[in-house]
Design goal:
By secondary structure, the protein is α+β, with helices and mostly antiparallel strands. It contains seven helices and 15 strands. The longest helix has 15 residues.
């Protein structure tokens, strides 16, 4: 099932510059280019009474396309409702390494406390971009927050691409890069008692991808998984990637979300990167994540 379809039929196709008012939700932008808080939605009721809420679900799809990452507060979801919300956007993705919460492997455990050696997502990345078909989107539900800190930063890869010089865009056109999960995932979840797998995903993806919903171009390399650009000398690749990473992490392309208990963040991995701040030790930040399958980048 593609991210443009679902139980409700065809989804909204965003065109840059759309400004139609929303009818069933309120959308408050965090910045002009990325991020919005969504009000007037009870996700638990939405997925339980799906047939009666087609219009509202359509508008949530539209809000995601227009804002790249959307946030919902005070959402008291059961695990089953969290999974159902993800499935309304497509088939669910199973993380190749991370532990899950409960019996369903699609419900990923997100947890850091005083005994953790690390926190999930500390560096800039796009989730599991090493997969042949990387995730379309990720839906994180945080149930326990630290008293201060623990924000997540999100960056628009549309804005990052648009801000490149025309010469750089021409250079990058047609280039592909290797994404590899081996050095990222091996041993990463040992503290949870998760045994390593014999191997982890690796794939080749375009350095610039075209979003299948909006048709916009987005930069698609990240520090977490991209290893080298294919077809150029390694020192040239290292230099170009170092520039692109620094460029993509420009604060001008970002929004920052301050978590509250029972908040949800839903981001589009095809056109964003994100970074979770681990600045709250020894406090705890805990929740679950559901991830929606995507398509092979083009």
């Amino acid at each position: 099932m593609s991210s443009l379809s679902g139980k409700h039929g065809p989804r909204y196709k965003h065109v840059a510059g759309d400004s139609e008012p929303y009818e069933t939700i309120a959308v408050e932008k965090l910045t002009p280019i990325i991020g919005a808080e969504i009000y007037g939605v009870d996700i638990g009721r939405l997925v339980s009474e799906e047939a009666a809420c087609n219009r509202q679900m359509d508008e949530i799809h539209r809000a995601l396309a227009e804002n790249l990452v959307i946030f919902f507060r005070d959402q008291h979801l059961t695990p089953e409702q969290h999974l159902a919300f993800g499935r309304s956007f497509g088939e669910l993705h199973i993380h190749p390494a991370a532990p899950h919460d409960g019996d369903d492997p699609a419900l990923m455990k997100i947890h850091a406390d005083k005994d953790s050696p690390r926190a999930n997502g500390e560096g800039w990345h796009s989730d599991v971009s090493c997969d042949l078909e990387p995730p379309m989107g990720s839906i994180l539900h945080i149930r326990q927050c630290p008293p201060r800190g623990g924000d997540t930063l999100f960056a628009s890869m549309y804005a990052a691409y648009d801000a490149l010089s025309e010469r750089m865009k021409l250079y990058l056109d047609g280039l592909t890069a290797r994404h590899d999960g081996e050095q990222t995932f091996r041993g990463l979840y040992a503290n949870y008692g998760v045994a390593d797998k014999p191997s982890y995903p690796r794939a080749e993806h375009p350095v610039v991808r075209t979003h299948p919903v909006t048709g916009r171009k987005a930069l698609y390399v990240n520090r977490g998984f991209t290893r080298f650009i294919i077809g150029v000398p390694r020192d040239e690749s290292d230099a170009i990637l170092a520039y692109l990473y620094q460029h993509a992490e420009n604060p001008l392309f970002q929004c920052r979300f301050r978590w509250s208990e029972n908040a949800i963040a839903f981001w589009d991995n095809r056109c964003t990167q994100h970074r979770a701040m681990w600045d709250y030790w020894p406090h705890t930040r805990s929740g679950t994540r559901v991830t929606v399958k995507g398509e092979r980048p083009v």
